[in-house]
Design a protein that fits this description.
Mean pLDDT: 98
CATH superfamily: Carbon-nitrogen hydrolase
Helix content: 10-25%
Number of strands: 16
Shape: globular
Low-confidence stretches: none
CATH class: Alpha Beta
CATH architecture: 4-Layer Sandwich
Strand order of the largest sheet: 5-4-3-2-1-14
Largest sheet: 6 strands, mixed
Length: 263
């Protein structure tokens, strides 16, 4: 199966949900693709002062961000995954939504919170399960720091995910290189959609994001990457047959696992 998959990299403006969302939608509308992945927390920005501020900017699935993506996905008959601050009562999650022309396919809540995210967000309560897109393939959802835990991507691959949709606000410099190993050890395509720029808050906290969004194939080959401060949507054509787990006639990536020997 042939697909066109891509990522959108940009610098969100903190707190400007409508402006950020409209920029995303207006850009994506100009391109043809089967899958588009957006960064983590791309509608709000990242560096919240506290949980109260995060709640003030968080939305549920009826909010402007999710509904805008849903409208575009129906218009273009495509898949779009992107990160947002999700409100559930008095709780706020660092979440990722996956939409298609059929509606909301899944909401994933970040399992592995990074640093001071633990002071703002609830730990995610959604398992790493592959999502059947209804288009002949499955995808897996991950957010940023999930990458450093091999179990996350392995779980998605074991459950049948062909493509990992990785929404990120990367700060550490290792992820892009680490995806070389993740792709090979799971035989999956990985789309990492990162953001760039710096953010500061009134508490004196500051972060700088690494950009360099990328797509890597099941052979560990870098299909496309962009610079640290590049804005735009970028895509490649892929062949899903590369996700075959048979390494040779006698070795199968998953059937050869010796689970009885693992901790």
């Amino acid at each position: 199966m042939q697909l066109t998959i891509g990522f959108f990299q940009f610098k969100p403006e903190f707190g400007e949900i409508r402006k950020n969302t409209e920029f995303i939608v207006n850009t994506l509308r100009k391109h043809n693709f089967d899958i588009a992945v957006l960064p983590e927390l791309c509608s709000t920005g990242y560096l919240f002062e506290d949980k109260k501020q995060a709640l003030s900017l968080a939305e549920n699935t009826e909010g402007y961000f999710v509904q805008s993506l849903l409208k575009l996905a129906k218009e273009k008959e495509c898949l779009i995954a992107g990160g947002f601050a999700e409100k559930e009562g008095k709780k706020v999650y660092n979440s990722q939504v996956l939409v298609s022309e059929k509606g909301i396919l899944s909401i994933y809540r970040k399992a592995h919170l990074f640093y001071k995210e633990k002071e703002v967000f609830e730990a995610g309560n959604t398992p790493f399960k592959a999502i059947d897109t209804g288009k002949g393939f499955k995808v897996g959802l991950m957010i940023c720091f999930d990458w450093i835990f091999p179990e996350a991507m392995r779980s998605l691959a074991l459950d049948g995910a062909d493509i990992i949709l990785h929404s990120a606000n990367l700060v550490l410099p290792y992820c892009q290189r680490a995806m070389f190993a993740r792709s090979i050890e799971n035989r999956v395509f990985i789309i990492t959609a990162n953001r760039f720029g710096k953010e500061k808050n009134s508490k004196g906290d500051a972060v700088e994001f690494t950009g360099k969004s990328q797509i890597i194939n099941p052979n560990g080959e870098l299909l496309i990457t962009v610079g640290k401060e590049t804005t735009g949507f970028f895509s490649v054509d892929i062949d899903l047959s590369l996700t075959n787990k048979e390494l040779n006639p006698l070795n199968h990536l998953f059937k050869d696992r010796r689970k009885e020997l693992y901790l």
